[in-house]
Amino acid sequence: MAFSTVAVVGVGLIGGSFALALRKAGFTGRILGVSSPPAVRAALEKGVIDEAKPLEEALREADLVYLAQTIERIIETLKIADRFLKPGALVTDAGSTKAEIAAAGAACIRRGRFLGGHPMAGKETRGVEQAEADLFAGRTYVLTPQSPQDLESPAAAEFVDWIRRIGARPVFLDPVEHDRIVSWTSHLPQLASTALAGAVARALERGEEAQIAGPGLRDMTRLAMSSYEVWRDILATNRQHILEALEAYICELEQLRRGLERSDLSSEFAAGAEFAARLRAKPPGDLA
After folding, report:
1. Domain end (from 121, 140, 173)
2. Dmax (CA) of the chain
3. % of the chain beyond a pLDDT of 70
4. HEC profile of 6-32
5. Contact, 11 vs 20, CB < 8 A?
6. Which CATH number covers residue 121?
7. Closest Cα partner for 39 from 1, 12, 72?
8. Nearest by Cα to 93 from 50, 42, 145
9. What's the pLDDT at 274?
10. Domain limit, last residue, from 143, 173, 203
11. What pLDDT is stored for residue 287 in this prediction?
């Protein structure tokens, strides 16, 4: 099997970047876009997609369906997709949590196959205007099969090949394990950045005071610019893992406060520096 038509459902930053990456990697088939009228208009103007289609038509024509919506919308699409799906098509997604999506895919997709995915790439900004062909290059791309059979179809093998061709590194994880890991590596950093920005904003109510800062504050609050519209579903579908990570982080902050009270933070600084060095020794987005 060779994909001749790809449908990108949700033509924003991730969906648009996937389409551009496919094209740059040599995909010569059609790329259909399913999204809001402004989004598909912008995608057509930028050359991200070849044609805009309603969801039902795109599902009937596509060999690969790439769901790049919010998590709630992905689950809603999975619930209605099978009745329109081209037999044998592969459905995948780019949602940031996987357990609920994988369960919906397993329950709802019958005419084709479902294989969950999560590219460890993105930006704080949204929209197809921000899409880049190299967004996934050098990044980990997590795939979450629920059984070995999910990877055995020709369509799944071809999709994994395209992931490698766009420059990403496929990593295979159980959906629940994926959610546990990203609660630490993605979701906790977002909440920590949001909290830091909020604390500084309240402490320095006069905006000009924040200009008395080095690059550290800018670096630490970069994620705070992320949209809650995107994060709402992520937090709702991974709540328990995130609560556990937050509790551990709060305990770590308490330990820092106790160390500051006794004027000794040497062990905390050493442990933090060791992890930061190990993190930077790996390629960006590498979970291996």
Report:
1. 173
2. 67
3. 98
4. EEEECCCHHHHHHHHHHHHCCCCCEEE
5. no
6. 3.40.50.720
7. 12
8. 145
9. 96
10. 173
11. 55
- Is 260 buried (19+), middle (13-18) or exposed (0-12) by CB count in 10 A? exposed
**Looking at the predicted structure, is the pLDDT value of residue 31 above 60?**
yes
Other Cβ atoms within 10 Å of 12 Cβ, number: 24
Which among 151, 31, 5, 16 is positioned nearest to 85, based on CA atoms? 5
Q: Are strands 113-119 and 140-144 parallel, antiparallel or unpaired?
A: antiparallel
Question: Do 149 and 262 lie in a common domain?
Answer: no
Q: What is the pTM of this model?
A: 0.91
List the domain range (segments joined by +) for residue 222: 177-281
Please give the backbone phi and psi of residue 79, each rounded to the nearest 5 degrees, phi first: -70, -25
What mean pLDDT is predicted for residues 238-265?
A: 96
Instruction: Note whether 119 and 197 are same-domain residues.
Output: no
CA–CA gap between residue 105 and residue 94 (Å, rounded): 13
Do residues 171 and 140 make contact, with C-beta atoms less than 8 angstroms apart?
Answer: yes
Q: Let me know the angle formed at the C-alpha of 114 by 233 and 44, rounded to the nearest 5 degrees.
A: 70
- CA 205 → CA 21, 201, 208, distances in Å? 43, 6, 9
Q: Are 129 and 48 in contact (CB under 8 A)?
A: no
* Tally of structural domains, the chain: 2
pLDDT digits (tens, 9 = 90+) for 66-96: 999 999 999 999 999 999 999 999 999 999 9
Q: How far apart are CA 90 and CA 190, in angstroms?
A: 31
